[in-house]
Automatic annotation (TrEMBL):
Residues 26-66 form the DUF5118 domain. This is Peptidase. Residues 395-703 form the EcxA zinc-binding domain. Coiled coil: none annotated. Pfam families: DUF4953 (PF16313), DUF5117 (PF17148), DUF5118 (PF17162). It comes from the Bacteria. InterPro entries: DUF5117, DUF5118, EcxA_zinc-bd, MetalloPept_cat_dom_sf, Zn_MMP-like_bac. Residues 78-270 form the DUF5117 domain. It comes from Aquiflexum balticum DSM 16537. GO terms for molecular function: metallopeptidase activity. Residues 500-519 are annotated as: Disordered.
Length: 821
């Protein structure tokens, strides 16, 4: 009986007491001292951390030293993940790795006030480690499982991009000891992570040898936080910088609670009193040694352009780019790096950074440049120069233009990693910033000869110098920082510069007249017309002279695509002038202009230019190209860089023009733009209305009947596409009721007024009967389509109301101040 009671008592103790891990004999392990000392057992695939500093903050960064290689999936070699402030806390027999919440803060001498804010918002425990040994206040924990997790969330990314359902497979994963290192200020641990599953997407199949098993490498970096010697600089929306932001609950009532500071490197003068001084520590970037020539030299040259801007800010020898040492680890947080990244398709380059979330201080700049981007510029030049006539060798101007783009790209992406955002309104002011997206500035003389010598700028712009001064200039004696920054911004805008960034420039409903992507010129519509003239002349001469000897003739299409669509981004820029608004990020009391609606002449000029792109002769592929483009040969299937086709395996001569038509109508009749066009007329009768824009478009598009020709067929295609886009607009929940009503009425006019429209186009007698029959059939087709839409039974649900800004305390309306549990 006593034995039974004792057994039950022991079992009870076992069930309620926490278990302790087996003690680890450190003498049998390999020790690596550093920021966080660790021990490894390579025979057993283990790693142990020795934690001697509890409740002390440090940075935790995840990254991808070896990626997947698909731009569409977005998991590239060298990609940085999240930057988090964490600390180890002891709880019972565990150490918890806690992600601290710095989005909500309290800076107060009252500890109770600080605690009240800290306890009001959640923290995140990232991992719990059982303590194996404790000696002299040092806790040894087995961190193997922590490092073997899918910390970069690759499985989630593959699922989100519809590539399949994956999960980590421990039996095919392992520690990567060659890249597991320790340094005084950072600890770097790398693991080989394999994810297994059922591949369903084409992207993962195209880049993985066995797509049911995807293997990458993931890096975990523990980094010492910088000292408190860095001085944050206030964010201003006019200055062109990225920022950190947080809520400060100790802000005085009446002051903004949200605090914002720019992102920038720490750069200090050795002599703060000197107008120009050497830095205490320069900003140095290291270029990937895997970058080949002549790309390597181009990237070094373009990257070093920024030295001029730092000189303008009062620093000498404060910035440089050089080739990385042979033994340098590019993922090491101590180094700013420029990586040359390979993917299966061309894609974005980007500049990212590791920042101190507390202050915005940039600790590591990390640039990733896609290796295939340069080939697109080469292809653009190839289509323009058409250099291979009579077996001539490659024209060196193609490579020269591609390398010029790489210099600009290097400077652009580094600009992001020193804190700068995109500056898309720079092209009209003499290409004032490398932070714009430039389309090559192509010149052509009267004889049709192409000049690419000025395709890209060869330096940073004037805006870039002003921006670096705002972020890095030292506050002189006798001035406050606020006084310095205010004066710098006023001088910047007095010099004629405008800063407009991503949201305003990328949105399909954008209305700014000069802030565009991939554009040139002071006037978007004038540049569009100039580009169309060059395009027409080069299409007239395009043929086998665009490809090298011994290439399949079908490969002309890859060169044709960027030439035929060379004005695609200028169409987007021109569309923003319709219902356009000239504005800045104006601050009360500054010297920037007050916003104003774009004058009627510019809006009407933009409409004329857009309608010109819809002329059949602008949408037609020249006969000599159609006659020489065969179906794709074996081994050269149709791909994302070729036009789609409704003609089976054959080239579709209508598809290129249809791409342009869809693009133009999508921008012209975007719901927000249509709403603005209607409303602007209510405030200024001189401006074009949505009805007027629509009437002019319909008049041109439906002004001709089918005449039995290729261009006549193109015109029918344009009529059909206009009908489709009007139906979409009339059914768009973001369109106002008035715009919907106008759209539906115009559809009725198309269905009924143009049904019996007499032909005004003279046609060859042999074609008359056929052309008339096709016209009648097509008119009936459009009328049926429109009537089917107009007569369909509508849902009698009232559209969702616009959300009113919160009045009562934010949250569910069911709660009140007398809520009881």
């Amino acid at each position: 009986m006593k034995k039974t009671i004792l057994l039950i008592f022991c079992l009870g103790l076992y069930s309620i007491n926490p278990t302790f891990s087996q003690s680890i004999d450190k003498s049998k392990l390999s020790k690596k001292e550093g920021f966080i000392t660790f021990y490894t057992d390579e025979d057993k695939g283990k790693i142990y951390l020795e934690i001697d500093k509890l409740d002390q903050e440090f940075l935790y960064v995840t990254s991808m030293p070896a990626g997947i290689g698909s731009n569409d999936i977005g998991l590239d070699r060298g990609q940085l993940g999240r930057t988090r402030i964490v600390e180890f806390r002891k709880a019972s027999n565990k150490l918890l790795l806690v992600h601290k919440n710095y989005d909500f803060r309290a800076y107060s001498d009252n500890p109770a006030e600080v605690k009240s804010v800290r306890d009001a918002f959640a923290e995140s425990v990232l991992w719990g480690f059982e303590i194996s040994n404790t000696e002299d206040g040092k806790h040894l924990i087995d961190a193997t499982s922590f490092y073997m997790q899918d910390a970069y969330m690759v499985a989630e990314t593959l699922t989100r991009s519809k590539q399949g359902s994956y999960k980590p497979e421990p039996s095919r994963s392992a520690m990567h000891y060659p890249m597991t290192k320790n340094f005084p200020k950072n600890t770097e641990v790398e693991a080989i992570i394999t994810l297994t599953g059922s591949p369903t997407g084409g992207y993962i199949r195209s880049v993985t040898p066995s797509p049911e098993s995807v293997t990458v490498r993931q890096r975990h970096s523990f980094i010492e936080l910088p000292d408190d010697g860095y001085q944050p600089r206030e964010f201003d929306p006019r200055a062109g910088y990225f920022q950190i932001n947080y809520m400060d609950f100790t802000s005085p009532i009446g002051d903004p609670m949200e605090k914002m500071f720019i992102s920038r490197h720490r750069l200090e003068k050795k002599d703060p009193t000197a107008a120009v001084s050497e830095p205490v520590k320069p900003i140095v970037y290291y270029l990937d040694r895997g970058t080949p020539e002549p790309v390597r030299s181009a990237l070094l040259e373009g990257g070093n352009w920024w030295a001029e801007a730092f000189e303008a800010a009062g620093f000498k020898n404060a910035y440089r780019v050089e080739l990385a040492p042979e033994d340098m680890d590019p993922m090491d947080v101590r180094y700013n790096v420029i990586q040359w990244v390979h993917r299966s398709t061309r894609g974005w380059s980007y500049g990212s950074s590791i920042r101190d979330p507390r202050t915005g201080e940039i600790l590591k700049g990390h640039v990733s440049l896609g290796s295939l981007r340069v080939r697109q510029d080469y292809l653009i030049a190839q289509g323009l120069l058409q250099p291979f006539e009579d077996g001539k060798p490659k024209n060196p101007k193609m490579l020269e233009m591609a390398l010029a783009r790489l210099r600009q790209l290097s400077a652009h992406e580094i600009g992001h990693t020193i804190g700068l955002a995109h500056a898309y309104a720079s092209s009209p002011t003499n290409r004032a910033s490398v932070m714009d997206y430039p389309y090559p500035l192509i010149q052509m003389d009267a004889a049709g000869n192409i000049d690419l010598s000025n395709a890209y700028d060869n330096k940073i712009g004037e805006w870039d110098k002003w921006a670096i001064r705002y972020g890095y200039e030292t506050v002189p004696e006798g001035k406050t920082e606020q006084e310095l920054l205010k004066k710098l911004l006023e001088d910047t805008y007095a010099a004629g510069h405008t800063f407009i960034s991503d949201t305003d420039s990328r949105h399909p409903s954008g209305s700014h007249p000069t802030s565009h992507l991939w554009d040139n010129g002071e006037s978007a519509s004038a540049e569009l017309m100039r580009m169309l003239e060059m395009r027409s002349k080069k299409l007239e001469t395009f043929g086998l002279n665009a490809i090298e000897e011994n290439q399949p003739e079908a490969l002309m299409e890859e060169v044709l695509v960027p030439l035929f669509l060379m004005h695609r981004y200028q169409i987007e820029a021109t569309s923003k002038l319709l219902g356009g608004l000239d504005y800045t990020y104006k601050i009360k009391g500054d010297n920037q202009k007050v916003q104003s609606r774009l004058e009627a002449s510019k809006q009407n000029g933009a409409l004329d230019a857009l309608l010109y792109t819809l002329q059949p002769d602008q949408l037609a592929v020249p006969d000599q190209i159609i006659d020489r483009l065969p179906p794709r040969p074996m081994g050269y299937s149709r791909n994302r860089e070729t036009f789609p086709s409704r003609n089976g395996l054959n080239f579709d001569p209508l598809a290129p023009g249809e791409n342009i038509v869809d693009m133009t109508f999508e921008f012209m009749f975007e719901a927000g733009r249509a709403n603005r066009l209607h409303q602007q007329k209510l405030f200024d009768s001189s401006l074009p209305s949505f009805t007027e824009v629509l009437d002019k478009t319909i008049q041109q598009v439906f002004g001709h009947n089918f005449d039995g020709t290729y261009q006549g067929e193109i015109n029918l295609m344009v009529q059909n596409k206009l009908t489709d886009h009007l139906i979409n607009l009339a059914n768009n929940p973001r369109a106002t009721a008035t715009v919907k009503a106008i759209s539906r009425n115009k559809l009725r006019e198309i269905a009924y007024l143009y049904w019996n429209k007499d032909s005004k186009t003279k046609t060859d007698a042999s074609k008359t009967l056929t052309s008339k029959a096709i016209n009648e059939d097509f008119n009936r087709f459009l009328a049926d389509k429109i009537n089917n839409f107009l007569n369909q039974k509508e849902e009698f649900s009232i559209p969702a109301e616009l959300a009113i800004p919160d009045g009562a305390p934010i949250g569910t309306t069911d709660l009140t101040c007398d809520f009881e549990y």
